[in-house]
Amino acid sequence: MDAPEDLPVAGTVVLLRDTDAGPETLLMRRPDRGSFAGAWVFPGGAVEASDRAPGGTEQEDARRAAAREAFEEVGVVIDDLTVLSCWTPPAEAPKRFRTWFFLATSLDDDVRPSAAEVADVAWVRPADALARHGAGEWSLFPPTWMTLHGLLGFARAADAITTAEVAFYRTRIDGSAFRWDGLALETRTLPWTLAAEQPS
């Protein structure tokens, strides 16, 4: 894998809870302005000065940022995060952050969304979120879509967390497709017009 670019860093939490119908994840809809306007995303945001510790690593800083943002955006306290993936956006993206995704279980299902940062929230099964995107009801960006797709088939949240292997995605745009050449992963091509289908 190429050396990482010198980019700002962010952290994102894929929050899971168990239900009788299988695990659900918490998604929030961004306001119709700013970054990811109108899209459904996982809680998260950029690393701030308070997230950095002397001698700490980028991943550790992102972990603290992810936990802080989850509390600020949806009022959920998280104390144990498992790294899932790291995403580098395409060169064409107007704002670029290298974003670490973490899995966690909810200690508190009482979600308290920030009115300034969150237009709506939903606990939803990954398959249902993907179906809503495929039907044009929800807008999902590629990292969210791919993460949800990777959560399909798990019977319990703990299964997803204990089997997680860190994946690195460097996103490239190839015509109408997003392409990822990931560490120890096949090259995946996802035509965004076919976002409800399984990537090849």
Q: How many β-strand stretches? A: 10
Q: At CATH's second level, what is the architecture?
A: Alpha-Beta Complex
Domain module tally: 1
Approximate shape = globular
Helix/strand structural class: alpha+beta
What is the H/E order? Answer: EEEEHEEEHHHEEE
- Give the DSSP E fraction (strand runs of 2 or more residues): 25-35%
Determine the CATH superfamily.
Nucleoside Triphosphate Pyrophosphohydrolase
Assigned CATH class: Alpha Beta
What name is given to the CATH topology?
Nucleoside Triphosphate Pyrophosphohydrolase
**Helix share, percent:** 10-25%
Average of pLDDT = 84
Low-confidence stretches: 182-200
Q: How many angstroms separate the termini?
A: 21 Å
Continuous helix count: 4
* Largest sheet, strands/sense/barrel: 10 strands, mixed
- Report Rg: 16 Å
Task: Briefly say what this structure is.
This protein has 200 residues and is an alpha+beta fold. 20% of the residues lie in helices and 28% in strands.
Characterise the protein shown here.
The chain is 20% helix and 28% strand. The two termini are 21 Å apart. With 200 residues, the chain is of the alpha+beta class. A hairpin with a 7-residue loop joins strand 9 (177-180) and strand 10. The chain has one domain (9-194): Alpha-Beta Complex (Nucleoside Triphosphate Pyrophosphohydrolase). Strands 1, 2, 3, 4, 5, 6, 7, 8, 9 and 10 form a 10-stranded mixed β-sheet that branches. The model is unreliable at 182-200 (pLDDT under 50).
